[in-house]
Amino acid sequence: MLDGRIVEFLRDKNVPIYTREIYLNSKGLSHLSRDSKKKRGAGLNEQDIVKIPDILKSPSAVYFDEAKGKLNVLYCSHAGGTCAKMIKLVIDTKYRRKKEAFSILKTAGYVEEANLKSYAEIFGDVESR
Prior knowledge:
Helix content is 25%, strand content 40%. The protein is globular. The protein has a 6-stranded mixed sheet with strand order 1-5-4-3-2-6. The chain has helices at 4-12, 26-32, 35-39, 46-50, 52-57; strands spanning 22-23, 61-65, 70-79, 82-97, 100-111, 119-124. The two termini are 21 Å apart. The chain has one domain (4-123).
């Protein structure tokens, strides 16, 4: 479910939110676990795919990709007090399929912090997690 801070931020940006609930369909699951992502090191392993509901409930940080108009939820795994890897979940709050409209998890993968510089932080702090 989308946190109230996320909803407020997106409303301020005039980004539609079709549902506060976040759905994952079989197409999205196939997309986030495809071989091409795994070969380049971006595809989630099975342990991290299973963690997705927990990540959505308690993310380390939430960012907004202003260039693409997508919500990005980040989770930082701890290793020696630093963030060894981040899991990025991309959520489309304005997804339409036929007559239905809802928020959906579009894809997920591992991301390096250096690739987050163009994102607007909604809340959280990857550095301190």
